[in-house]
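Schema walkthrough. Field components (list of strings):
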Amino acid sequence: MAVPKVCGIETEYGVALRGAADANPVLASSMLINGYVEHRKVGWDFEDESPGRDARGFAREGSAPPEIETHLVNTVLTNGARYYVDHAHPEYSTPECSDALELVCADKAGERILARSMQAARRLLGGDQQVVVYKNNSDGKGNSYGCHENYLVDRAVPFATLVRHLLPWFVTRQVFTGAGKVGGENGTGVTGYQLSQRADFFEEEVGLETTLKRPIVNTRDEPHADPQKYRRLHVIVGDANLCEVATFLKVGTTAIVLAMIEDDFIDKDYSIIAPVPAMRTVSHDPTCRATVELVDGGRTSAVELQWEFLRLAQKYADDTGLELCGGEEVGQAVLERWEATLAALERDPVTLDGQLDWVTKLELLNAYRERDSLGWDDPKLALLDLQYHDVRPDRSLYERLVRAGKVERLVEEADVITAMTEPPASTRAYFRGTCLSKWADAVVAANWDSLILDVGSDPLRRIPMMEPLRGTREHVESLFEECKSPAELVARLAS
Amino acid sequence: MPERERKQKQAPKERVEEDVQVDAPAKQGEELKEELDDLLDEIDSVLEENAEDFVRNYVQKGGE
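Field assembly_structure (string):
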């Protein structure tokens, strides 16, 4: 049975220290976070972290557990987000959201937080040095860093069922999720332009890894919620998107597909023969006409298979409704945008300039290629590709296009600014964020599913938050208004 | 009643073409070209110098 599609996005940003001989990315990343978080930092609580647990039910064999670097900077913000150093990158995890539009806003707020962090780091560094971040997924030299989505999923659905439907889903959704890239990596030999930053890096169909031999379906089993009821599907195949329409589609469509899988609504097997090479076939073809072979026979283009998923989704919306997929209003907007996008991809992808990142960037590159007669191997095109993703407002080419009115926005900038400090009202992030803004000094540590409060007398109190949809504004706003201290809050919650 | 509305949209392609037609009157080719030239000039002014070195020096450690 489908459960509400609570969702979030974690983005690892590319990072560079300019003007320094010895550029240490860990130090540069720490400087961003320390510069941004002026109040006393509330630490992350690692008690419930278990990234090595596998959703297929077996213990990891032979492979080392993913590393948790507890000594690195790691903090929680008043908007309910987690902002930290992961490996050698600054990473921003949005708070839990309840629909795709809310998540677009939370994800964009992350970009603004990184931009402000860069200003703060510049003040700390002084001189000509500055830390610069990029919201992309590859350095063009074979090193990739992720943008992961998370969705709440019913624990009762067999993981193998998820895998069967998600493989063709992830292979084909690249036609709108791709952020575009000049050239190929990992020996794929692409010389022109491809849809996805990430496709070249996937080498397995299913697995636990995220940093090597990356799998299309990741099996990390770390629900950050009641493990008897829920999974958290950890999606690692996506690109980091700047276009709001792309993020909206990526999250909104995937939420509906997951609900259909949970409700056993997908009555056909769309399995693709050899999904790993198929990821690349789809990514490497900006005409969106390349075909892949289906297990059930026949060949299909990514767009044709997407039409199949969309028709099912429209039927699902009629039969079941979209209440669990972010609500009827957002769900219907997703369906309409999805349909318009597929029609446009079929007719002429160029018409999606300003909506999808891969098309928007390609059109910019094509304008330069024409004006300056550049071949695809010209370093200027690689620079344009990189600088499209620069997060500094004055240098970001994406932001230039927004200001020129060439990019469609879905959320109000005022709402984005609010989302930098205020949590979404519709999930437990509201409880976490409000505790932090009200009683930062009393919050000893927090994580996704609990919060530790110092109530002024021993012991420290842990407040479990195992239900992602409890602790919303509707549930606890009046409680916060009535309680004058953390001790009172704990007493009221216990009663 | 959302259900009824949904049932009406049986022909996806026509719907989208309609959407295209309600756009603002198309700008003339020359006007568009001029706009694009201006935008590229503006982008030229913020592009990092020495593309080749800049791109070469952008090296990341893997993540995730």
